């Protein structure tokens, strides 16, 4: 029998743990010749998530848990589950039930057809705001434009990876890991399955604007140095603009025998170019910060306890 590992990061998901475990069991009750394990990764939860996981692990043999020493973030938590998964294929998904467990059947079917990576493409239900849909679409378009890999619009961390692919991920030691980009960068034989995101079963999402912005910058800087080239291009562009503008100013002064005065225009020009310089320095600083974090070679996560 082939074994499927389900990796589920959980941060303050005490109300969803039992629900998703029950639905996964129902899915595999209809699948013959497959056994499974569910690896919950407690990513520094402050509620009773760990207590719920220990209770489930005592009741069901397939339930495993990894408790991290603090909140390391979604991507390191997924990486922790992948590192300890033992299945012939590994499926990663969220604990809030927005990733429907019933789609596991389709993921496995595509894997059996010979695909090494089966990713999912998310579409939003009608009740999701127009702003959320547009901002998400613009983010993926911008990310694909500015990075060296193509990121599928509507991509998520709900995917299946063959054990050979998981072995490659285990051997990667990136300080800021970005699994959505890595799955595209690695290659292999891939296919996608569309799905409509469900509603969160219980609780509130901890994925706030700050974390979304950090995730966006991680995705942009993890796979490309194009922002550095853009900074250089901006420098050349504004230098040329300054030379041309100064030339026009000199010609105007000679022809009209006047001069353009006013401290407001001067101050605005200084502020504008000062802002451009800060943006460029910020881009360089982000890359230097990533190098700083990488050379220290600290682990992506620290395990406090586990039941296997």
UniProtKB/TrEMBL annotation:
Residue ranges occupied by any Glycosyltransferase 2-like domain in the UniProt entry: 5-166
Localization per Swiss-Prot or TrEMBL: Membrane
Keyword vocabulary terms for this entry: Glycosyltransferase, Membrane, Transferase, Transmembrane, Transmembrane helix
Gene Ontology MF term list: glycosyltransferase activity
Single GO cellular component term: plasma membrane
InterPro entries noted in UniProt: Glyco_trans_2-like (IPR001173), Glycosyltransferase_2 (IPR050256), Nucleotide-diphossugar_trans (IPR029044)
UniProt keyword Acetylation, yes or no: no
Pfam families with a match to the protein in the record: Glycos_transf_2
Bilayer-crossing regions: 228-251, 263-288
Entries under Gene3D superfamilies matching the protein: Spore Coat Polysaccharide Biosynthesis Protein SpsA, Chain A (3.90.550.10)
SUPFAM superfamilies: Nucleotide-diphospho-sugar transferases (SSF53448)
Protein name: Glycosyl transferase family 2
Source organism per UniProt: Chryseobacterium koreense CCUG 49689
Upper classification of the organism: Bacteria, Pseudomonadati, Bacteroidota, Flavobacteriia, Flavobacteriales
């Amino acid at each position: 029998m082939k074994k499927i590992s389900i990796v589920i990061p959980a941060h303050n998901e005490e109300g969803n743990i039992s629900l998703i475990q029950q639905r996964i069991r129902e899915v595999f009750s209809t699948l013959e010749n497959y056994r499974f394990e569910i690896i919950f990764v407690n990513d520094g939860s402050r509620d009773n998530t760990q207590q719920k996981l220990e209770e489930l692990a005592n009741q069901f043999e397939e339930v495993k848990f990894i408790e991290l020493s603090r909140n390391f973030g979604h991507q390191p938590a997924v990486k922790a589950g992948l590192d300890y998964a033992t299945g012939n294929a590994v499926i990663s998904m969220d604990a809030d039930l927005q990733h429907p467990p019933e789609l596991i059947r389709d993921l496995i079917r595509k894997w059996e057809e010979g695909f090494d990576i089966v990713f999912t493409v998310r579409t939003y239900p009608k009740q999701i705001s127009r702003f959320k849909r547009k901002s998400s679409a613009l983010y993926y378009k911008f990310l694909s434009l500015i990075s060296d890999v193509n990121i599928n619009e509507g991509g998520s961390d709900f995917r299946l990876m063959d054990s050979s692919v998981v072995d490659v991920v285990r051997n990667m030691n990136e300080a800021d890991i970005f699994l959505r980009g890595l799955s595209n960068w690695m290659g292999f034989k891939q296919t996608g399955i569309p799905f409509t995101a469900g509603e969160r079963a219980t609780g509130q999402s901890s994925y706030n604007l700050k974390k979304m912005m950090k995730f966006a910058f991680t995705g942009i800087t993890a796979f490309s140095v194009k922002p550095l080239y853009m900074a250089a291009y901006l420098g050349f562009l504004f230098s040329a603009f300054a030379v041309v503008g100064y030339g026009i100013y000199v010609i105007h002064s000679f022809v009209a025998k006047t001069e353009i005065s006013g401290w407001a225009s001067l101050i605005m020009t200084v502020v504008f170019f000062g802002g451009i310089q800060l943006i460029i320095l910020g881009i360089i600083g982000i890359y230097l910060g990533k190098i700083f974090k990488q050379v220290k070679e600290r682990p992506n996560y620290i395990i406090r306890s586990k039941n296997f």
